[in-house]
Amino acid sequence: MAVALTSVPLAISSPAHAQGGITITRFSVEQGTTVILDSSELGSSSLRGYNAAECAAASTIVTNFTLMNVPSGTTILDAWLSNGTTDCSLATARQTGNGRQCRHLLVNPDYDPTGTAQMTLAEMFEPASTSEPVDNGCESSSQTAIEYTLWFFATGSTENTGEVQSTQYGSVKFRVDVGAPSAPTPSATTLSGGGSVSVGWSATSTNTANETYRVYVDDSISACGDTGQLAAGDVAPTDADYEVSALSARVNLSSYADDRSVLVFVSAVDASENQSVLSSPVCVTRIPTVGFCESLEAGGQPCTNSCVAGVGGSGPVHGAWWAAAAALAVAYRRRRARR
User: Fold this and answer.
1) Residue in 302, 268, 262 with CA at minimum distance from that of residue 286
2) pTM above 0.70, yes or no
């Protein structure tokens, strides 16, 4: 069984480095003709990082940038990468030799005069030489998201190691999150009910504030103890039967016959859309229900004290009618007795 890593999304903090005069924004991430992320998902408050699946296809994942206030005449951008709060605008951070703190990137992206540039995810980490500092986040085994800063210098140089003016550079933050959350732990191994049953679980990740959960129903079995098509620890299927943000989901059993069982599995999804393996299963069995209260409870509705079970058509209104009728009958008999 594969061991899933726990992903803890990091909030973007206020940058400690100088921003520079060039404003850089990631406005989309694409793979071929498919837009994976748009500008609404790439804002400064977004927890969405490049995930494990995107890192695996890094050479095909293209990020499009918009740039403002770029010096006129600029045709190429000198690209550098830093992690943490390293300020690559300082010449000492880009100096040649062992003192270098920023990674000089192999690809210097072309700058379009319309104010755009693009790089693949692979190019955003690819070093100009093997001695460059800063690790490749896509190759990390970190259980948490890692934050990076991409720097563009518009100086006309392909590797500027000297002083630069504030009008000649800009930076943009991004994160890489390749650690999938742990699989949830179901609250029960077997459950039963009528029209629907609530299946609950606990999250085993250290940070679940931004997790969602996908629920899968395996109806290839007939009874608990049968082997289904899915199993604990499996990679989750593409399509889920339910997706919720709470720690429970109500599974609909109305299409199954009485005494029929199904297996229910849960998978956790983090803010970067890394997904855990499947949880251990919950065997859910549909059972027959009779009476008004039982039908309500089987469907997940509360039954009030005014219910009268066992009487055809019984219910709060019907029960109250019978109670009133009985009271009138008693009163009538007492009056006749007095005569």
Assistant:
1) 262
2) yes
